[in-house]
Design goal:
The chain is an alpha+beta fold. The chain has one domain: Nucleoside Triphosphate Pyrophosphohydrolase (Alpha-Beta Complex). The protein has helices spanning 21-39, 86-98, 152-157, 175-181, 203-217, and strands at 43-52, 55-63, 73-74, 77-79, 105-110, 114-116, 120-129, 144-151, 161-164, 190-196, 199-202. Strands 1, 2, 3, 4, 5, 6, 7 and 8 form an eight-stranded mixed β-sheet that branches. It has a three-stranded antiparallel β-sheet with strand order 9-10-11. Strand 6 (114-116) and strand 7 (120-129) form a beta hairpin. It is globular, with a radius of gyration of 17 Å.
Length: 227
Amino acid sequence: MYNRSRYGVKEQSNICEIRKPIMEDRIKTSVQKEDKAVHTPSAAILIPVVRDKDGPALLMEVRSLSVRQPGEVCFPGGHIEAGETCIDTALRETYEELGILPSAVNVLQRMEPEWHMEKKYVYPVLAEIDPFEPERLLLQQEEVSEVFTMPFAWLLSHEPAVYDLSDPESEKLPVILRQYLRNYKRGSNTTYYWAYEQYGIWGLTARILVRFRDILLAGEYQPTWRW
């Protein structure tokens, strides 16, 4: 687990440009829906891209055991408060959960929302963290137990599994997924699922990962940094 000392201040934040025209179409749809999101039970998350030792990677959280959906992998985020935009919420929640100041976050785009089982829209916000100093993260221990990075190279080389959730105790399901499902009512949905190192990623987070992976495969996004 990373050190929880406070993240350092960055003097100036540069807003990164969208690199492919096709991404502009995605933004238009999200922008049209954003005003509505402020007035309905909705949430926003940040998809943080960082420069890891092995190349570009996603920064991901593991929820603490004292909150809902304990032990699950997610992105930083939460409910959109009155008067906030999706970006406001994503930046605020990232600071509250990880101690990353908004000045260190270069926002790239708002993606189209995902429908959540709690009957709300979740708006992903793609951004780059620069500088990324893992030793200076300050985790909100009541909500976040640890963080880890998933390299782009790994994500691109691994397709997700798809599981039927009609029998949450089925031995066909990974052990970690069965443990997650014990916190939910029975259903007949399916889910994408990734087993990355000791982590299991499913549900909304997995759906967003699928979308992000498709963006990478299509060449619609590349990190703005030079390696």
